[in-house]
Design a protein that fits this description.
Elements (H helix, E strand, L loop, with lengths): L1 H93 L5 H21 L2 E4 L11 E7 L8 E7 L1 E4 L2 E4 L1 E6 L1
Parallel strand pairs: 2-6
Antiparallel strand pairs: 1-4, 3-6, 4-5
Length: 178
């Protein structure tokens, strides 16, 4: 009986030891669970950061592509408007006539066509004699003292200015008075 008693005591001790180990394991699991929400929150935050970074990278690439496409579209539109002028110039060069008036008329028609194309693109010419000088739109390269003109009036235009809507593409080169 002593063997079975010893065996029983040994089993009891083993059970007690196992219970102690299980309790320690439970405490460790509880501690891990207490730490685990922070780790879980950290992992969630890292995941969100990675997704936001990827979304931003995709947005940047998409924006660059759209910008490039819109530039190409605008360039194609501008070239398309000017092609009729090139066609007229090619036709004028292909004809062999010595008629000055006919040549002058052809150049005038080509100029008018070009100006109409530029107008469709929103480009307008400015800078006429008699206009008031504005340093935002005009470049005064000469100045003359003349009592026939008011102060800061354009007396002569050497080169017209061009603007798209309100943005100056090239200022007008002018001579001003007084």
């Amino acid at each position: 009986m002593s063997k079975s008693k010893n065996k029983s005591e040994k089993q009891d001790e083993d059970l007690k030891q196992e219970a102690v180990e299980t309790a320690e394991d439970a405490e460790q699991i509880q501690q891990e669970e207490e730490e685990n929400p922070l780790e879980k929150e950290l992992a969630d935050t890292k995941g969100r950061l990675l997704r936001v970074t990827a979304e931003y990278s995709n947005f940047r690439k998409r924006s660059e592509k759209e910008k490039s496409e819109s530039f190409n579209f605008a360039t194609a539109k501008a070239v398309g408007e000017i092609l009729s002028v090139i066609d007229n110039l090619e036709r004028a060069l292909a004809t062999e006539q010595e008629d000055y008036e006919g040549l002058k008329k052809g150049v005038q028609m080509t100029y008018d066509d070009l100006m109409a194309s530029l107008e469709k693109l929103g480009v307008t010419a400015y800078g006429e004699s008699g206009e008031q000088f504005d340093p935002n739109f005009h470049n005064a390269v000469m100045h003359v003292e003349d009592e026939n003109f008011e102060a800061n009036v354009i007396t002569e235009v050497f080169q017209k200015g061009y603007k798209i809507n309100d943005k100056v593409v090239r200022p007008a080169m002018v001579k001003t008075a007084n």
